[in-house]
Amino acid sequence: SLPAVDPDVAATADDIAEMEIRGAATIADAAAEALARQAERSEAASPEVFRRQLRAAAKTLYETRPTAVSLPNALRYVLRGMSGETVSELRASTIARAEEFQVDLSQAQSKLGEIGSNRLRDGDVVMTHCHSTDALSCLEAAVEDGKEIEAIVKETRPRKQGHITARQLRELGVPVTLVVDNAARRYLDRADHVLVGADSIAADGSVINKIGTSGLAVNARERGVPVMVAAQTIKLHPDTMTGHTVEIEMRAEREVVSDEQRADIAGERADDGLVVENPAFDVTPPRYVDAIVTERGQFPPESIVILMRELFGETTGEPWAP
Ligand code: RUB
After folding, report:
1. Atom of ligand 1 nearest to the CA of 25
2. pLDDT tens-digit readout, 196-222
3. ipTM of this complex
């Protein structure tokens, strides 16, 4: 059995589960930070207890949201850097490794942004879905290069993360047209690119991202608008190299209908015949994606597996496995 975790780690796990902390890169950053806090606060009497505490913390963080692979990738990276003979050596190495992870994450995002911005030309109109810090990084780099960019921002039901995207784009001075999801195909006529992030990328080049991404990509293909996915290599899902699929998170009914709305639909009936489903993500097949932009360059989705082999080799197993 694993020991209890630090209250700060538990609080971070709650924030991730409740989506106070959200978006794949931000979740990974918070998870690394939480492991550092656990290491710092640990009063473990032996190296073995310290290691068990860190594994328990990793497991608590992991069990929050299942789809973004950046979370287990971050946990694995930090835990693999835990080294030393004494508790104080273990503590120092874990904290240093978590910091290194966070610095690398932010540098990768800036680098990816520069690469992605090369695809954007002065005057281009970009359609976005949900809120992705990797996608925003491309737009920010383009603006910094002096390009005039406009955005059509999809609201993104049910949680409307499009509002976050709209706010951040307005902070960059980008003109924004906010539309409901159902208006996307109509507005694709005005778009030069679709730009989205990713929670996970599978070995066959499939992109797992916010629900609605796949429909948007199919419509974009039909309209001849290229689809660009901004995803740091931490979004590459190692288990998919051995045939595993990516779990799609199902979220609460209340994100879609309130109790009151449900009662209204049910009327006089005791309505257990009404089912509300709320998948948070979907899978866009590689044939609808034009480019996956990473900090290591841009790739056609079909060749992303080459980068995955190089980066992960035979990496498998649960992040906290000893
Ligand atoms: C967020 C989402 C984002 C990716 C990429 O979903 O689908 O597109 O996580 O984000 P949710 P980033 O709001 O459910 O977490 O580029 O910031 O990692």
Report:
1. 18
2. 999 999 999 999 999 999 999 999 999
3. 0.99
